[in-house]
Amino acid sequence: MTTAAPAEAAPHKNSSGPAEQTPRFRRPGRIRRIALPYLLLLPALILELLVHLVPMVIGIVMSFKELTQFYIRDWGAAPWTGLSNYAVSVDFDAPVGEALLHSFFVTVAFTLLSVGLCWLIGTAAAVYMQDTFRGRGLLRALFLVPYALPVYAAVITWVFMFQHDNGLVNHVLHDQLGLTDKPSFWLIGDNSFVALLVVSVWKGWPFAFLIVMAGLQNIPKEQYEAAALDGAGMWQQIRRITLPSLRPVNQVLVLVLFLWTFNDFNTPFVLFGRTAPQAADLISVHIYQASFVTWNFGTGSAMSVLLLLFLLVVTGVYLLLTSRGRKTADV
User: Fold this and answer.
1) What is the pTM (predicted TM-score) of this model?
2) Which residues contact 262 (CB under 8 A, 6 or more apart)?
């Protein structure tokens, strides 16, 4: 009787072997999981570079060149001028600098009034819409119509309404209400600033209404009920509950409205054309005129860079002040 030889003992394996080999097989999958979000963002980043950053860099380079109509076909061959374009832009005793300073003051006044009125009307409408009443949904939809309409279609409609002879504004103010002695010119002269402000507020306040209304949804109703039980009226509730609770929302909203309004080009360009009246000469249209009307792209690029620096400084100071105010309120 033969007996089978005992099986050869399996070689002893170090217990640490599998633990050492496991990361070798798991590491590629982990890398793929980590890199996948960045790969998905890569097309958007590339488009952002092409659409925004690359033209910005080109504009900065152009601001250091004497780029006129003689070098449009080959702008790279334009001679370098250093900071001369910036010196011309900030020389407020010369015609170019004086016109730019006037445009800057007009833009600041227009922006402050437009942002303030947009925020005030939007906040008032959002607070009013918190109460339940019949037709609230329809009224909300109507409030958002100016924001949903295309800018060009909306502003062109206002152009017809501001016409001197047959415009709806003069028909209502002069013919029906008798508030003016004679029909007014709204698209030229000093009234152009009022016309521009009206159009800007009309199409901007629904955005403030939408943002504030979304922020009001996060305020618990129990706070208003407790305040009402303590005898607080509507204005006290708005002052003590609504406005403090909306502070983070308002900080972002005011900044966005400021940047949009200060850089607004479509509204004045469609409303007045290539040459805006002096009373409504916003800096965006002024830079356009300096670049494409006088054919001095170097000076126009320098003005654009100065505008960019101003907005960066204002944004940085605003964020610094609001962050300090938030920390003080939390303490």
Assistant:
1) 0.81
2) 107, 111, 283, 311
